[in-house]
Write a structure and sequence with these properties.
The complex is a heterodimer of chains A (252) and B (636). Chain A is an alpha+beta fold and 252 residues long. Chain A is built from 8 helices and 7 strands, in the order ββαβββββααααααα. In chain A, helix 3 packs antiparallel against helix 5, helix 5 packs across helix 8 and helix 6 crosses helix 8. The N and C termini of chain A lie far apart (60 Å). With 636 residues, chain B is α+β, with helices and mostly antiparallel strands. In chain B, strands 5-2-1-9-17 form a 5-stranded parallel beta sheet. A 5-stranded antiparallel beta sheet of chain B has the order 11-15-14-12-13. Chain B has a 4-stranded antiparallel beta sheet with strand order 16-10-20-21. In chain B, helix 4 packs across helix 5. Classes of the chains: A alpha+beta (252), B alpha+beta (636). Bound molecules: flavin-adenine dinucleotide and FE2/S2 (inorganic) cluster. Flavin-adenine dinucleotide binds next to helix 3, helix 6, strand 6, helix 7 and strand 15 of chain B.
């Protein structure tokens, strides 16, 4: 790997607010160190812009270690940039070459309106969780944690789904802008645990309804969501979810 | 400033039970009439907001991220402690409490710590009931590991994502209450001011980070769960948005700030790679269970690690602390790393790094077992550094990680300002001068699920304050002041970006108020910080408008507060003329170990803001140890 500094042409979506239309704008970014993260490259761009009197590019980020789900950029057409299991904040510039042209855009989905530049409104995902993505247990009075053994295999399957960071890349990748992977991951996390069993089918129905109400599309069955998911949530959760929805009809 | 700790009488084992019984209750129908503001939705804030609303209170919750689920708590990797003694290895509430008090170098309030250990067992029960997928053994029971300087296995974990899973549990509980309508969640709202009416905390001022609108909110009590201030150093393991604004604004309204100098430097982080670095990434210290820390015996030894023979390596933690070895507590392991690097034996760029080597464990257990235990951490390391830790030892270096200091609170978690409660990392009470691994998550959830929901009722039942609305002049004034402050940032139109100031402040703090501190360096900072602050207010460049999503304006407010707060932190470090836990004054050293001065400093230092340009006043809360005898903290 070379440590040579790179010069890149970075095209970024600029939009002042929700009500105005936006456009791609090109910038040259110099002195990009291959050890930088993608967001550090964006920081470098922002320093440059501000020195020229131009407002910095707004983008969401917080943990910068791939766990909070805040960062959300489509890089060269792929949410998070297309490296397996990696969020934009964990993507490093060593994957790019000197002279590359890069395109950076916000998540695109009807249910995720752009608020500014690369920042979108993902509150629809919270509302889906509020519609039923939990176990209805209040604080206090829980039995001893070990009184209910759970087979390791089930606990692991639950954990695989619970690893979802709610970033919304799955929505951005889907041609129908469906939130199916997100919703099914939540359902699967709880469905594999005995604690989640009593509300399993109502939960599935409520979340599916809310997903529709928020304007997310239907599942395209193309698995693009799985391909971009930084936590590699498998599409098997969608199959499980669909099967639960069907069973839910019979359970009334 | 009146500092009444309100520690209940009686033997330590009975204090909390008796206290709960003595607390006045509010009848369920009346709870509905009280509104509580909870700022912050990390483990502490989410759990508190959910539980308070379940009890019947009306809750307004705030966070600056786009969703409550993204609070910094999400990043915790390693685990959460609880005195369950599931492993039958001799753990107990008393032992967990003792370890925490000793780990904090006898600078925490013993009664609070004991209560923390007591409710720790309820936390695990609660989380499992919510569906937190903790790691399990093949028999289906919960798995444990030993963590961060503990000699028993009491740490519960969910792969390397414990914080995330616990937060999702609390977040789901919160969303459940949002659905009932009794919690109103305000994401992308940053608290910029605390509002006091007739000496009671009655509300806050926020900025809607999308529209820029400055608004105020009134309530019967205010809870701050806004996390720690490690980002005063710019580079830390904290999420980028972590800040001191909420607690500092409260301090400026009269809340005592306790032990601001107590900072935890975590020994196992990925070393800084360049000047552009925006944050440091933690490698969970669970890695020290199987990794061995070493540097070459000779300085300047640049051979690839595999070519350095065994007898030319210095496994310095195992050598210096034979009984704890690589598991020596954080402050001790960090200082030891700094020491070997100062001796010129550090590895990697700039010689600021030590090896964390898994070769022996891989030989002993096989790569598969190691991958199962730490796979995601190894992946993270190789994503960031481009190196493969299965074949080349990791390089690590200490970094700022956690702040034990925070707003002073009494046993009820209320600050000296009536009505203002402070929970989680934002308060000072449980970790003394050093926090043990896996105990911050425990504290956040203890405060939020099991302590505050009881104690806040006592305040509400007895305060008897008239209802106020945001039409009250104090609210109007706070809103006007905040608007003026935003306008001021935008009017400076200087030449330097906010980040450049923040970076410079952070570097100064790291050099002179970081891992090692001296009176000389601290006194220099007391001149340098005001100088740079003055330059900030003269030359910062914040573009754009206040009425829009404006990331530089957000940062400007936070950095301005860091500038003021930093000075208090340095003063505290200077006045605490001893070494204890993470606070290491080079003048007080016992062969590389922190040397406490119990005669002079067995107290919490609580600072009272006096106004701009005036030195804050230092008060003390003496610490009395009845159950646990202070001893020299030795891990040899
Ligand atoms: C990388 C890392 C790993 C860690 N691993 C562990 C571990 O394994 N075990 C352990 O016990 N501890 C660990 N810790 C420590 C632990 O994660 C934190 O101390 C703890 O989660 C803090 O929780 P909290 O609820 O107090 O605050 P936070 O989770 O920091 O939440 C703060 C909340 O306040 C909000 N907020 C802040 N300021 C404002 C404002 N002005 N206006 C509105 N909202 C505001 C934020 O939006 C957020 O919701 C780790 C820390 C780090 C950095
Ligand atoms: S910033 Fe947290 S996941 Fe990228």
């Amino acid at each position: 790997m070379s440590d040579k500094l790179m010069k890149l042409k970075v095209n970024v979506w600029r939009q002042t607010n929700k009500d105005q239309s936006g456009e791609m704008k090109g910038y040259v970014v110099e002195n990009v160190d291959p050890h930088m993260s993608f967001l550090e490259m964006m920081d470098t761009l922002n320093e440059q812009l501000q020195h020229k009197g131009e407002e910095p590019v707004a983008f969401d980020h917080d943990c910068r270690e791939g766990i909070c789900g805040m960062c959300s950029m489509v890089i060269n057409g792929i949410p998070h940039g297309g490296h397996k299991g990696v969020t934009a904040c964990q993507l490093h510039m060593r994957h790019f070459n000197d002279g590359d042209e890069i395109f950076v855009e916000p998540w695109r989905a009807k249910a995720f309106p752009v608020l500014r530049d690369l920042v979108v409104d993902r509150s629809a995902l919270d509302r889906i969780v509020a519609s039923g993505g939990y176990v209805s247990v209040n604080t206090g009075g829980a039995p001893d944690a070990n009184c209910l053994p759970i087979p390791k295999k089930e606990a692991d399957l639950s954990m695989d789904a619970a690893a979802c960071i709610g970033c919304g890349a799955c929505v951005a990748a889907c041609k129908n802008a469906s939130a199916m992977l997100f919703v099914a991951a939540k359902a699967s996390h709880l469905a594999h645990l005995p604690q989640g069993e009593p509300e399993r089918y109502v939960r599935a129905q409520n979340m599916a309804q809310q997903m529709d109400a928020e304007g997310f599309g239907t599942c395209s069955n193309l698995s693009q969501c799985e391909a971009v998911c930084p936590k590699e949530i498998p599409v098997r959760v969608i199959a499980e979810f669909n099967s639960d929805l069907i069973k839910a009809q019979f359970k009334g | 400033m009146k500092l009444e700790a309100k520690i209940p009488e009686g033997p330590i084992e009975q204090k909390w039970t008796k206290h709960k019984l003595a607390l006045p209750l509010i009848n369920p129908a009346n709870k509905r009439k009280f509104k509580i503001i909870v700022v912050g939705t990390g483990l502490a804030g989410s759990s508190a907001a959910a539980t308070l609303s379940e009890l019947g209170y009306q809750v307004d919750a705030f966070c600056f991220q786009d969703s409550p689920r993204r609070a910094h708590s999400i990043a915790a990797q390693g685990g959460i402690n609880a005195a369950k003694n599931y492993q039958n290895d001799g753990d107990s509430v008393r032992r967990l409490a003792y370890d925490t008090v000793k780990g904090g170098d006898f600078r925490a309030r013993e009664a609070n710590v004991y209560r923390l250990a007591e409710v720790s067992v309820n936390i695990i029960d609660q989380c499992v009931a919510q569906g937190v997928p903790f790691a399990r053994e093949y028999g289906g029971h919960l798995a444990n590991r030993s963590f961060g300087g503990a000699q028993v296995s009491r740490t519960f974990y969910a792969r390397g994502q414990t914080g995330q899973q616990l937060l999702i549990g609390a977040y789901q509980a919160l969303e459940k209450q949002v659905q009932t309508g009794s919690v109103k969640m305000h994401a992308r709202h940053e608290m910029l001011e605390l509002v006091m009416v007739d000496g009671h905390a009655r509300g806050i001022v926020t900025r809607d980070m999308v529209s820029g609108k400055i608004e105020s909110w009134a309530a019967d009590a205010v809870v701050l769960a806004t996390g720690g201030y490690g980002n005063v150093f710019f580079l830390s393991t904290n999420a980028k948005g972590c800040n001191v604004t909420a607690t500092w604004r409260a301090a400026k309204k009269g809340a005592g700030f306790a032990n601001p100098c107590y900072t935890q430097i975590h020994p196992t982080c990925i070393p800084q790679a360049g000047d552009y670095q925006s944050k440091l990434t933690l490698m969970s210290e669970s890695l020290r269970n199987d990794g061995r820390v070493w540097v070459p015996k000779k300085g300047g030894d640049n051979r690839p690690p595999a070519q350095i023979p065994e007898d030319e390596r210095d496994y310095y933690l195992e050598r210096k602390y034979p009984s704890f070895g690589n598991l020596a507590p954080r402050d001790i392991a960090s200082r030891a790393a700094k020491q070997v690097c100062d001796e010129g034996r550090g590895v990697g760029p700039g010689g600021r790094g030590v090896f964390l080597d898994f070769a022996d464990s891989i030989k002993r257990l096989g790569q598969k077992v190691i991958a199962e235990r730490y796979g995601n951490l190894f992946d993270m390391y190789s994503t960031i550094t481009g190196e493969d830790p299965y074949t080349v030892p990791m390089r690590i270096y200490p970094a700022v990680h956690y702040t034990m200091g925070g707003l002073w609170v009494d046993y009820n978690l209320m600050s000296n300002l009536p009505g203002l409660h402070v929970i989680g990392e934002a308060n000072f009470s449980d970790h003394g001068a050093n926090r043990l691994g896996a105990s911050a998550l425990m504290q956040g959830l203890a405060d939020g699920y099991f302590v505050l929901p009881y104690t806040i009722g006592a305040y509400l039942a007895t305060a008897k304050q008239p209802k106020v609305t945001t039409d009250h002049p104090e609210f109007k004034k706070a809103v006007a002041d905040t608007n003026a402050r935003m306008a001021k940032f935008l009017s400076i139109k200087g030449k330097r970006t906010v980040d450049s100031f923040h970076r410079q402040l952070g570097q100064m703090m790291w050099e002179k108020c970081g891992m090692a501190r001296t009176a000389k360096g601290l006194k220099e900072l007391l001149v340098e910080i005001p100088r740079l602050r003055e330059e900030f207010w003269r030359d910062v460049n914040v573009l754009g408008s206040a009425e829009s999503l404006n990331t530089s304006l957000e940062k400007a407010g936070r950095v301005a507060d860091f500038f003021e707060f930093a000075e208090m932190m340095v003063l505290d470090a200077l006045e605490r003329d001893e070494s204890c836990g993470g606070h290491y004054r080079e003048e007080h050293d016992d062969e590389g170990e922190a040397k406490r001065d119990d005669n002079k400093f067995m107290h919490a230092a609580v600072w009272e803001y006096q106004g701009e340009g005036k030195q804050p006043v230092r008060h003390v809360e003496p610490l009395v140890f009845e159950a646990f005898k202070p001893s020299i903290r030795s891990y040899k």
